[in-house]
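ok trying again, last paste got cut off:
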Amino acid sequence: MTGAAEMSLGAAVACAGAAVWLLHERDSAARRARLLLAAGGTVGGDPQAGRRWTAEALRQVPGRVPAEWWAPVAGLVLAVLGASVLPILLGAAGVPLLRRARVAGRARRDRESRADAVIALCGALAGEVRAGRQPGEALLRAARECGGLADAQATVLAAARFGGDVPEALATAARQPGAEGLRGLAACWRVAVDQGAGLAAGLDRLATALRAERDQRADLRAQLSGARATAVMLAGLPVLGLFIGTTLGADPLHVLLHTPAGLACLLAGGALEGLGVWWVLRIVRGAEGAV
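nice, full thing came through this time. structure:
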């Protein structure tokens, strides 16, 4: 048996092991769901609630595996098809990059959620003040109604409940990404309490300004989505070319992975493609950061 065949066999065994592990995890989750369903699903013994929980648990099973761990799986598949260990190394190298992208996406969603929560808090607080409640009581009621600021809510509520420095607590909470609008709320609070100005009117103007800024960012993001889509499409063209070459019988994987010229083209093409995607994303982030 040749070295390439041994390497291909080893990659196939590793790929099969990964598939068996994923199936075992799915079967374990399904068995736990069936046991819960057999027990009634809830303490009250509602079978319909148990079935709903089971369906929800089964839908969430694929999401428990982080997206970046599919890169080594794809590398194993390509290693089997191309009889080379290089795709496995590339798949392993892609794990930290994909994890970084996933973490960045989660941070962006959290930031947007906090910004929406600040706008909702300003609107709810203005309504409570107009209803005749004192600022401290109004802030307590508005903060309980508005979610998305769980990290800062305890400090602000404690300051409002026990007579602490509410503007300082709001300014401290505004350090979180997406909660910068709380600085404006702190300024409105300080002016209203110290100088007797109308708190509700200031909150309305602040909410209007924050809402306009959010809409401007959303509009810019929609305009830049075309650039992102173009970058993704261009990045996927080499994969499409490999697929077309394989269907035509040209065996491009063998050329890329087992010949000096193919390895040089793979290295140069990968570097240029990575540089191009990084440059496009840098331009997009610069445009978004200018708002």
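cool. The radius of gyration is 27 Å. The chain is about 80% helix and 0% strand.
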